[in-house]
Amino acid sequence: MANNRAAKSGFAAEAQRKVNAKYSEELAHESLEWVASITNEAINTAGDMDNFYEVLKDGTLLCNLVNCIKADTIKKINKTTMAFKCMENINAFLEAARELGVPAQETFQTVDLWERQNLNSVVICLQSLGRKAGNYGKPSIGPKEAEKQERQWSEEKLKAGQTIIGLQMGSNKGANQSGINFGNTRHM
């Protein structure tokens, strides 16, 4: 747990301060309110880091959340507070979140929550899961996900696009090779 670690100093402390500075109390509060509404559990939804950590640290609420979104996703939820059992809960949540469609880059490591290393990544994961919950008929949070819009182009239109030089490539108007002397040496 977080209180079993030695205090960080030097570069490690500075790096931890930068990680903690990214944490958003508003997003954490929104996430906890969403969790409470989905699970129907009375939890403290204050967005400060201490409360956020205390509410989620054992992983049982996270496992209940996933099971409320999609029934029987997590078969066994450990109710004990033993460290490795709590980390099993968190890991089961992470696997279930990926299964429900949360991209791997928006998940977190088990130690980010259990050892309170990066609570911002936990908020990001909950926000991402909140967007995916709409796919399962549950209330969602955050911006709505984009819908796929396929376009069909004619062969003529595709060939017409090959003749255009994009602006990112620059312009070739007035271009010539004068003044280029690759391979030439200076003659004296």
UniProtKB/TrEMBL annotation:
Q: Where is the Calponin-homology (CH) domain?
A: 25-134
Q: Which domain of life is it from?
A: Eukaryota
> What Gene Ontology terms for biological process does this UniProt record contain?
actin filament organization
- An example Gene Ontology CC term for this record: actin cytoskeleton
Q: Which PROSITE patterns match?
A: CALPONIN_1, CALPONIN_2, CH
The molecular function GO annotations come to:
actin filament binding
What's the family? Belongs to the calponin family.
Q: What is this protein called?
A: Transgelin
Provide the species name. Henosepilachna vigintioctopunctata
